Amino acid sequence: MSLKGRIALITGCSGGIGAATALALVRQGCSIAIHYNSAKEKAQALVQTLQAAFPGVIAIIFQADLSDYENVRRLHSQVVDQMGHPDILFNNAGGTLKTIGRMGNIQDISIEDFENTWKLNTGSSYLLTQLCIPHMVEQQYGRIVFNSSVAAGTGGVIGPHYASSKSALHGLLHWIASRHAKDGITCNAVAPALIVETTMMSNPTDEMRNMIPVGRLGVPNEIASIVELLVTNAYMTNKIIVADGGWTPSAF
Ligand SMILES: NC(=O)c1ccc[n+]([C@@H]2O[C@H](COP(=O)([O-])OP(=O)(O)OC[C@H]3O[C@@H](n4cnc5c(N)ncnc54)[C@H](OP(=O)(O)O)[C@@H]3O)[C@@H](O)[C@H]2O)c1
Known about the structure:
- The chain is of the alpha/beta class.
- The chain has helices at residues 16-27, 40-53, 69-83, 111-139, 151-154, 160-180, 206-211, 220-232, and strands at 7-10, 31-36, 59-63, 88-91, 142-147, 185-192, 240-243.
- It has a 7-stranded parallel β-sheet with strand order 3-2-1-4-5-6-7, sandwiched between helices.
- The protein is globular and about 45 Å long.
- NADP nicotinamide-adenine-dinucleotide phosphate binds next to α1.
- Keywords: NADP, Oxidoreductase.
């Protein structure tokens, strides 16, 4: 229970990786602000799971469509009002908007698709982080983790819009990690490859499986355990931890 009493805001908790991470951080003693966008039943089911496993745990759900910055601001203020300032922020929510694949036609991703993907995956994560940092500085403690992707280093299997929205997070985290290291804030990213038991990867193909040296896709717990490491370890900062079954030996 090394995080006993800490408040963790996890975006995208209605998804596979967010839900697994919520469970991992509750096990460490955190209260969880459970964010979702459209899948309210999944968020509610997660609260029930957490409360059944850890009676008395504080887990409150918050809805926000993070493709709109006003909703990001509202999410932050609702969490602060109802739970207090987050000590831990996992910027996990994300989307692909469209998939054109590795051999797709760049003309099929309009500049609007590109910008909207960036807004959801990058801009909103930036804004939420910006909103959380002042309190973390004040208390000289904070943990920030971004959910990137191997696409940031390889181009990936979705398309150029998604890959670039994720690689942009890397420059952002490097700046924050360096700037705020002396404030007790660590800032890192996990970069998964293809993870099943998620809506995003609900129909993996044989081509995808064949790319992975260990011979299978990953599962959400394998990402959650990395986030747990990143938020419990005060000396690990400015890092991008890749979890990809051996797919990208030198991508980062
Ligand atoms: N699965 C993979 O293979 C894989 C690989 C690399 C990186 N990732 C990254 O992992 C993160 C988590 O995704 P996942 O794998 O757990 O997939 P998932 O099951 O599809 O979950 C995606 C989460 O993001 C939320 N979300 C999507 N659009 C949103 C919006 N407009 N506003 C607010 N929230 C939104 C979803 O909320 P609702 O369902 O409530 O709408 C859901 O909670 C994403 O950032 C993704 O890019 C995933």
